[in-house]
Write a structure and sequence with these properties.
Elements (H helix, E strand, L loop, with lengths): L1 H12 L7 E3 L6 E8 L4 E6 L2 E9 L2 E9 L3 E2 L3 H8 L11 E6 L2 E2 L1 H5 L1 E9 L2 E9 L13 E8 L12 E11 L6
Antiparallel strand pairs: 1-4, 2-3, 2-12, 3-6, 4-5, 5-7, 5-8, 7-9, 9-10, 10-11, 11-12
Length: 183
């Protein structure tokens, strides 16, 4: 429904529709990470402070501008949580925000899945990053269901050198994004 209304606005409304913005609903969105240990288990955590927006830039393309409150990280193990928030990992005291801005991507990727490329800033390091949008569970109205995004990053590329001998360099990321009504 949301995307159908936008398509009509874009078709008949011209430039005014390009200003449509869907806010990310922080109460229903989250980002999860997982990193493999030397013992083939995984350290896992969940960030609850996901905010930002999905913005229509024209009739066929959107852009995502999202950020995560690094201090919103939750983990089952208190020691692992302290370490993950500390200077060897996310360093939430010095770098409280993780920020991603996508390149324009086809609106159809919200329905069908596809590549989501952009710039990720983590720990003061900015890197080009590629994620995968998963096909929507609501293909007729893709924004009525959570948008699922998966990918991985290199810890060392972002200066995350804590426990290098014990943890993989690859960090898997999974985001579940719910957007509100366009404004």
């Amino acid at each position: 429904m949301k995307r159908a209304a936008v398509a009509l606005l874009l078709l008949f409304g011209g430039g005014a529709a390009a200003a449509l913005v869907w806010p990310i609903d922080p109460a229903h969105s989250q980002a999860q990470f997982s990193v493999r240990t030397l013992w083939f288990t995984h350290e896992r955590g969940v960030f609850s402070g996901v905010r930002g927006e999905l913005r229509a830039i024209d009739a066929e393309h959107d852009v995502v501008d999202a950020w995560i409150d690094a201090g919103s990280l939750h983990m089952d193990d208190r020691n692992a949580l302290r370490e993950a928030r500390g200077p060897g990992f996310f360093d939430s005291g010095e770098h409280p925000r993780i920020h991603f801005v996508s390149a324009p991507f086809p609106v159809s990727a919200l329905r069908d899945g596809g590549v989501l490329e952009g710039s990720l800033e983590l720990r003061g390091q900015r890197r080009d990053t590629r994620f995968e949008l998963q096909p929507s569970r609501c293909p007729a109205r893709p924004l009525d269901c959570p948008v699922q995004v998966n990918g991985s990053i290199s810890r060392s590329a972002f200066g995350m050198h804590g426990r290098r001998a014990l943890l993989s360099d690859r960090v898997s990321l999974e985001l579940h994004i719910v957007v509100g009504e366009p404004g």
